[in-house]
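With this grant's support, we have settled on a layout for protein records. A representative record follows, to show the layout.
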Amino acid sequence: MSKNNTPIVKAEGVNASEKLLTQLCDKVFLKLWAYANPQKKKGIELCDVLAVFENHVFIFSDKDPSFKSERANKTDFEKWESWKSDAIDGSIRQIKGAEKWIRKNPEKIFLDAQCTVPLPLTIDKENLKIHRIIVAHGAKEACKNDSQNNINGSLAIAYADLKDSKKLSETLAPFCLTLPKNEVVHVFDSHNLKIILGELDTVHDLLWYFEAKEEAIKKYTYLSYCGEEDLLAMYLTNFDEESQKHYIGAKDEKFDGIGMEEGFWEDFIKSGPYKRRKEADKVSYLWDNLLQKTLQNALDGVLIGDGNIFKGETAMSKMAKEPRVSRRIISGNMQNAIVSFPTDPNKLTRHLGCYSSFYPDLMYVFLQLSPPPSADYKTEYRPVRRILLEIACGVAKNKFPHLKTIIGIAIDPPILGKGVSEDFMLMDCENWTKEQAEYYKKENKETGFNFFETDNLETGKGKTYEFPPE
């Protein structure tokens, strides 16, 4: 990790709705990869939240106009058109402007109004993939009052070809958005914003949902639904065993359009599989907390090390790529290792775990090492721990030759109640030489720790279900 002496102060959003969006994005994308109220010129905002991860850029526009007194003398249709002009059309204009700026001037994005603090992340201009997201508030009560079937006040949405969207709009309006298929914009509202970003709360879980949705929009003549949460319920309950992916739509190819009624989400969250999934995921947030602590240290300018956490591929960015189910498995293994750590305060004791990633060529090495009572923590114990972590990663590569990357994580055993630090390292071992293999084999023996060679070595395999069986 890099030593960054300049703290980065992130904006929190201008109003209540922007602050909520910022908090949710900080959880999904983690603190390092999402920024509220970025600026393109002095006093000119780019968008409401910008998230950047690898070659993906997520542009959020948050609007909160309402059906207030200035619309009082208008018909329902006129009120809807006026609100839509402010909340939807206004957001689309902002997003298109932001997208144009990002594609042309990715290096000219700033975190402050005076444009003195540049966005600390690098945007991959050549391989850019833009995701456009509108958060539209203000119409919840109007939507509920318009139809007794709209129990949550969610926005009904329909995607169709440009030539059909006007006709569809006249048929469904008011209180249904019709959007073109060629430039997909995702629209969340006051009810389902927290649902979508709460259920899909890792960058890749959200990304996979967007990709599945965009694929369905492209495939079908139209895609319509009564609330984004209902579409999410379809996505989570549709799973293709062959591709090992969730999908939106129907297996039967005879369907050329998809329409969904209200209530899919309400039924889904009452089901046993959903409740078991939420319970099983609780342990996974150990992973998120570990990442967020280190990322906050980077933003505060107190992180030390020899890498740049803001640029390129790092241990943090690799860890952030893990989807929720994978975090559940790894965190469960880590938690078991933590509670089973030997608690002899008079001995230098260690525990090493090795855990598979969602990505088959990546593995995590988890080292707990108790600080000796007589050793100086900063000058003696911490440097030794880093060396041992590197050796353990090298030995893991020797034991599992197929690996291309190993992430090392070292901590003070939490069970001792004295933990104050964590170490992370990324070992790129795709081009592993004979000399490297021999070096780590030799170091493993000379340290006397004999990683992966002790008599009490345990190995295991298991199968995990996103929705655990009863």
In short: The longest strand covers residues 56-63. The mean pLDDT is 90.
